[in-house]
Design goal:
4-stranded antiparallel sheet, single chain, binds pyridoxal-5'-phosphate, 16 helices, 20 strands, alpha/beta
């Protein structure tokens, strides 16, 4: 760890930012060639320097604090603690030659967010490049590359970038001509975006229950809810877990239904060896800041159907004829993503394998740190045919303990969250429910714990204390 907290004084602002991104502590200790401490630099210092005309490729030498706080090796604990405050929560420890040998961190006013974007040097570089190119609106190289490469990642032929994940779903429904008089089957346990877009499209949602093991929409419940009006199914790959796509696609074929996969929480998850988003007619993704990869706000529709790709693009762009400008043949939307956002997205996508791996290993650390707690059940990661990815760290606890646990976690500065409410619990959606038994049960027992680069063994132990 100490290595990622160090930066040589002849290194650049960009190099320092890179270290801060790795260490997630918002600062570096600046050393000379002999490893001796000569200053401290925070992310705030770099932001202020940039605002004052510094460039990213300039050396940090000129902007380091020389009146910094540090502790000596073997300095009594009480003395060190007195040096810490709300602003100074991490300080270097030096030996007799003033070489940095360790650091001390005080986590009294700790706040661990449920998720934080994993942004690095590459995102920053591409973003600057897009900015300098002046292609900052919704045309440009980054849009094209991001769409193409994200589609490739999903094992589909086409990608159509959108302003966010919710409008990706709406665009998909409109593209498939789902509207008034049609019924669309959605799961009861989910974030509410999919059902809301069914209303936006003028169709009627039909809410069905989820499976107790996977927490995803139950194909048998779908089968039971089908009527002559059913037009589409929106399976949600919930919390990184893929739905039973074999059964869902079989039902869809039998009844001639459209399938729009909501993959907002499951970038890269696989079912039967195939990526989510590649099964249905259209797959929809979100790149909101708390999702697996992000563009700030953003989304994407993926499909392998050439006609659907064409229509998605036309409706995304005001329903305008593609060759005859300002000639409209349909009521369309402006659901475009900007080249600036796509620049960040492309960088994220190029790092997605390592992002997914890091998330998975954090889940592993959680599991080994909490697995002996008797009352806790983990989200299943080895269901047949399913290869889930890690979005949040999800556990089930006894229903009467859930809120007290959450309360304790939040008091400790851990931004743990209850699961999504079952849609059927809310007055807005109640009358559209067909089945909801498992969904209600899961929703009363579930806790989502943070997944971000601040999680380490110490924090897991703290969480353990709060839920045992
Ligand atoms: C986040 C999310 C969405 C919506 O994505 P936005 O980009 O926030 O609009 C849709 N469905 C599910 C399941 C989500 O978690």
């Amino acid at each position: 760890m100490i290595e990622t907290l160090l930066c040589k004084k002849n290194q650049t602002l960009l190099a320092a930012l890179k270290q801060m991104n790795l260490n997630a502590k918002g600062r570096v200790f600046v050393v000379d060639d002999l490893h001796r401490l000569c200053g401290v630099l925070t992310d705030g210092d770099i932001r202020r320097a940039l605002m004052n005309g510094y460039h990213l490729d300039e050396k940090i030498e000129g902007i380091i604090h020389s009146d910094f706080v540090y502790a000596k090796q073997n300095e009594p604990y009480e003395g060190i603690i007195k040096k810490m405050n709300e602003k100074i929560s991490v300080i270097p420890i030096v030996d007799n030659d003033f070489k940095v040998i360790d650091y001390f961190e005080c986590r009294l006013n700790m706040h661990i967010p449920i998720a934080s974007p994993n942004l690095g040097e590459k995102e920053f570089k591409y973003l600057i490049d897009a900015f300098l190119s002046t292609w900052i609106s919704s045309n440009g190289q980054y849009i094209e590359s991001f769409e193409k490469q994200f589609a490739h990642f999903c094992e589909t032929a086409y990608g159509v970038a959108t302003s966010n994940g919710t409008v990706a779903l709406h665009l998909a429904l409109k593209t498939l001509n789902v509207g008034a008089g049609d019924e669309v089957i959605v799961p009861d346990l989910t974030f509410a975006a999919p059902i809301n877009t069914v209303f936006h499209a003028g169709a009627t949602p039909v809410i069905v229950d989820v499976e107790p093991e996977s927490w995803c929409i139950d194909p048998q419940k779908i089968q039971k809810a089908i009527t002559s009006k059913t037009k589409a199914i929106i399976p949600v790959h919930l919390y990184g877990q893929p739905c039973n796509m074999r059964a869902i696609m079989e039902i869809a074929r039998k009844h001639d239904l459209f399938v729009i996969e909501d993959c907002a929480e499951a970038h890269g998850a696989k079912y039967d060896g195939k990526k989510v988003g590649s099964f249905g007619h259209i797959g929809c993704f979100s790149f909101f800041a708390n999702k697996i990869i992000t563009t700030g706000e953003g989304g994407m529709c993926v499909t392998s159907d050439e006609k659907l790709n064409e229509r998605l693009r036309i409706l995304r762009d005001h329903g305008m004829n593609k060759t005859k400008k300002y000639w409209h043949e349909e009521i369309g939307y402006n659901y475009r993503l900007t080249n600036l956002q796509a620049a960040i997205g492309l960088a994220q996508l190029e790092r997605i394998d390592s992002i997914l791996k890091t998330r998975q290993s954090l889940e592993g650390e959680y599991v080994s740190g909490l697995s002996d707690l008797r009352d806790i059940e983990f989200q299943k990661h080895n269901l047949p045919l399913r290869e889930k990815v890690v979005w949040l760290m999800n556990i089930l606890v006894p229903p009467d303990q859930r809120d007290p646990y959450l309360h304790r976690l939040n008091r400790e500065g851990i931004d743990a969250r209850p699961f999504f409410y079952s849609l059927s619990q809310m007055d807005l959606y109640k009358k559209y429910v067909v089945s909801n038994h498992n969904s209600l049960d899961l929703s009363s027992r579930g806790i989502s714990l943070p997944i971000n680069n601040q999680i380490d063994d110490q924090i897991i132990q703290k969480i353990r204390g709060a839920i045992s």
